[in-house]
């Protein structure tokens, strides 16, 4: 399974979402108006990355169910 390029792409997508989430959460704790703006920006990026990750996961599942 680890030699499957599509699986590796899924893992990378999930790790990118996790990294953006952790960066956004860490920015929440700093306080101030600039940190709030920065944190909101990271959370928007997380939503986009999460959507892309879900699409990649659905593609992975589709190809594995069809045997491709």
From TrEMBL:
<feature type="domain" description="HIG1">
    <location>
        <begin position="1"/>
        <end position="68"/>
    </location>
</feature>
<feature type="transmembrane region" description="Helical">
    <location>
        <begin position="45"/>
        <end position="63"/>
    </location>
</feature>
<keyword id="KW-1133">Transmembrane helix</keyword>
<dbReference type="InterPro" id="IPR007667">
    <property type="entry name" value="Hypoxia_induced_domain"/>
</dbReference>
<feature type="transmembrane region" description="Helical">
    <location>
        <begin position="6"/>
        <end position="25"/>
    </location>
</feature>
<protein>
    <submittedName>
        <fullName>Hypoxia induced protein conserved region</fullName>
    </submittedName>
</protein>
<keyword id="KW-0472">Membrane</keyword>
<keyword id="KW-0812">Transmembrane</keyword>
<dbReference type="Pfam" id="PF04588">
    <property type="entry name" value="HIG_1_N"/>
</dbReference>
